[in-house]
Design a protein that fits this description.
Shape: globular
Membrane topology: Multi-pass membrane protein
Helix content: over 70%
Largest sheet: none
Strand content: under 5%
Structural class: mainly alpha
Number of strands: 0
Number of domains: 1
Radius of gyration: 20 Å
Distance between the termini: 66 Å
Protein name: ABC transporter permease
Subcellular location: Cell membrane
CATH topology: ABC transporter involved in vitamin B12 uptake, BtuC
Main location: membrane
Oligomer: single chain
Mean pLDDT: 87
Number of helices: 13
Organism: Clostridium neuense
Amino acid sequence: MKDINFIISIIDSTLRMAAPLIFAAIGGVFSERSGVANIGIEGMMIMGAFFSVLGTYYTGSTIAGILFAILAGAATSALLAFLSIHLKSDQIIVGTAINIFAAAFTSFMIFKVFKIGGQTEIVKGISFNVPKVIANIPILGKFVGGLNWFIIAAFILVVVANFIIFKTPLGLRIRAVGEKPIAADTMGISVYKIRYLCVIISGALAGIGGSCLTLGMTPIFKEGMVSGRGFIALAALIFGNWKPYPTMIACIIFALGNALQINAQGLAWHIPNELYAMFPYILTMLALAGFVGKTVAPAADGVPYEKGQR
């Protein structure tokens, strides 16, 4: 029974850790499928994590907190879109600048709003009430009790995103703009509008991913709490070949590394905790080293488009 409980704990932890990665990575799929490399996902997650706490703190509503996170992520991505699409700035540099800005801005806002440094006050998190009928079922009750609404929404998102990208006219336009923007423009598709839409969707989803870390796990914002998850999400979408389902699987694999770290004491291995902490990043590097040469990015990914060019 102890072994079963440990396995369930690992699975629950993996799913909780995978949810923010899935939101951020699927957002990245939309952006990069349209031809805009979104290196700023990390910064958008930071903004989403902070503003979800801020919105909940001022309103007392977790729903409002999530809306704040969506707006913060969307606004940050709109800046990326304007600089990258309209001004033709280098997308890698712009994304990196957004990451630096987000970390510094949220640090400043913590002190400005909460009058302390390093972290905000604790707010109300998203509740997930399991019916007693299910909670009393051995094994199943423990498993379901470890889930939350973000996990359920993340897996629904993957299905919806895959349908939109591969089964709808909008998805066809997105893929066309990311592969052959000149041809798409010739066919009357607005390259700029599609790219703006996808980048803003990317930021909104990354914002929700940030709120997963706060309202869905620990209802408090701390400096550095995103801890490179935006870059892991980028690695996941590359690993997943810019497709929702393989990207989701990659997120789960990377999240397993975090789950092992959290539940390290339940393992009989005599390994320093620091090595467990390295697991998700080691997995990221191995995935990129082993698969980046075998994946094919959208042809126009990261390439600015000048309307009318031939």
